């Protein structure tokens, strides 16, 4: 089976049929159609609380009753007009009562107002306590000192040499 040069040249000039398997294209992944994100409107404060009205009651100590009467309009105005919270003074119980309304824009306004009134009851000026309404994450914390030993008599030790 020797091939002559004429055969080789002829073979080179004519195309040779070859069994070539066509490379299969990678299978297409099935296109998964996702549902569009729902576009919900924001809930109002009234809807967040399931339509229930929320209350806060702040008791008024006897020594702050007169200052509260004098500063009532300064306390009432930012709470009612700006924070959209109902406020009243219960004279029989000596408490300031706060209540959400349907148009209260934020759920946290009720707690801010309660902190504002409580700060006034602790002795803060209204101008200073208003910062509790204006700023987020600002709190007033107080404590009562009862475990202090009272000193009686001469507390200075005797001096020697003098």
TrEMBL record:
One of its GO terms (cellular component) is nucleus. One of its GO terms (molecular function) is RNA binding. CDD domains: KH-I_PNO1_rpt1. Keywords: RNA-binding. The keyword RNA-binding applies. This is RNA-binding protein PNO1. It comes from Salvia splendens (Scarlet sage). The lineage of its organism: Eukaryota, Viridiplantae, Streptophyta, Embryophyta, Tracheophyta.
